[in-house]
User: Which sequence fits this backbone?
């Protein structure tokens, strides 16, 4: 009638402490792993150039979004025509910020995934 296996509903305090320690030691990754693997293929010096240029693009996108919102608030009749540019520049800014963080991590740590091993293609 019933299952012979015993279910364990609670974990021991030691298991929970070890899991918490592992979570504290692993930093949060903003860049997804497949993208980080592609970033690791780029040379270190080139990753610095890409990080700087995409960072500038992210700041320019923030400026464009804020300026468009200012125009939309100041001149109510233009808001309908500013919806598309606001969304477009917001998406461009987010993608540029993620790319900039990924390439800056690659330049600073030597690897976007956090590993120190060299990739040979």
Assistant:
């Amino acid at each position: 009638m019933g299952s012979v296996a015993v279910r364990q509903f609670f974990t021991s305090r030691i298991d929970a402490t070890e899991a918490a320690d592992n979570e504290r030691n692993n930093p949060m990754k903003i860049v997804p792993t497949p993208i980080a693997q592609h970033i690791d293929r780029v040379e270190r010096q080139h990753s610095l150039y890409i990080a700087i240029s995409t960072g500038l693009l992210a700041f320019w996108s923030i400026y464009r979004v804020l300026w468009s919102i200012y125009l939309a608030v100041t001149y109510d009749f233009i808001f309908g025509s500013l919806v598309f540019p606001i969304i477009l520049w917001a998406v461009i800014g987010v993608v540029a910020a993620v790319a900039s963080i990924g390439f800056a991590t690659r330049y600073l740590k030597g690897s976007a995934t956090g590993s120190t091993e060299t990739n040979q293609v």
Observations:
- Helices lie at 13-25, 33-39, 44-74, 79-109.
